[in-house]
């Protein structure tokens, strides 16, 4: 694979998404397809929510055009799973879809990924003493991982640019390692997603002209889950002497996705502690804390993106430590910082 292949896949998805979004905005204005302002919303004017359509169009065209499908036989099943989430997201963006229906679609997409595409978790690399997983647990953990990460990106999409920026970080990081693993087609998938998201962010920067909606956030989340599972299963082929060899692979994977995963875990615990449904809306997300402290959407997004990058580098450079200790650091560091932010917000009330 040459750098030209990566550049072309990135530029193709970028161009298609950039070209598609103005047309989608125009149609949304004509048909009055907007996200209305509300008490929990961060915007004060009506904004179209169909940006995920453009992201998907750019990604799908670039991947199918530039990949060698004889080298990625599972691509047809990956696209099938993504199409399920695409149509679920479109319906939810146009008319509210019940939570159990979205969950059912996510589980179905995960089953396609695990059973038909053969992309499933089979090992924990000795984390908590667990190595190879029995087949039933392998399927269960794959479905659980897909559902959790998909919903984590869905929930973190609360301010301008955040989900897109975190998606770029995740795709670029996974793509970096896939490149050294010689996994050409997955590197192209990562590059295509980065191109689509960069184009989308041009229109999503404050004041946002369009949102990605559930269509975009669920697609990004599911692709991140797919890349995470593939990364965990593939990194073992690197020799231990390789400069980019990862020892604590599951923990490092969590570090790549630390902001959406930690934020989702935190708000779910808070809601259940208060005897509420974990899916009930509130303003306890980390991005809400930052905005309530007076940060702009751009500044809050930049802070969270930089923190995510910092945790990736920290876990990589400390990977000689036990996996359990690294996981504890991955939880404690953001927990301490968010607790300080929460207390500061309370003091300002």
Outline the structure in words.
It contains 13 helices and 2 strands. The longest helix is centred in the first third of the chain and has 29 residues, at 3-31. Helix 5 (135-156) crosses helix 8. It is an all-alpha fold and 349 residues long. Strands 1-2 form a two-stranded antiparallel sheet.
Give a short account of the largest sheet: 2 strands, antiparallel
Low-confidence stretches: none
Radius of gyration: 19 Å
**Quaternary state of the chains:** single chain
SSE run: HEEHHHHHHHHHHHH
Global structural class: mainly alpha
Morphology call: globular
**Strand runs, count:** 2
The helicity comes to over 70%
Q: How much of the residues is beta strand, in percent?
A: under 5%
Distance between the termini: 56 Å
Can you summarize this structure?
With 349 residues, this protein is mainly α. It has helices at residues 3-31, 51-66, 75-94, 99-116, 135-156, 162-181, 184-204, 213-234, 249-256, 258-273, 286-292, 297-317, 323-348; strands at 34-35, 47-48.
Note the topology.
Elements: H1 3-31, E1 34-35, E2 47-48, H2 51-66, H3 75-94, H4 99-116, H5 135-156, H6 162-181, H7 184-204, H8 213-234, H9 249-256, H10 258-273, H11 286-292, H12 297-317, H13 323-348
Antiparallel strand pairs: 1-2
Helix pairs in contact: 1-2, 1-7, 2-3, 2-7, 2-8, 3-4, 3-8, 4-5, 5-8, 5-10, 6-7, 6-8, 6-12, 9-12, 9-13, 11-13
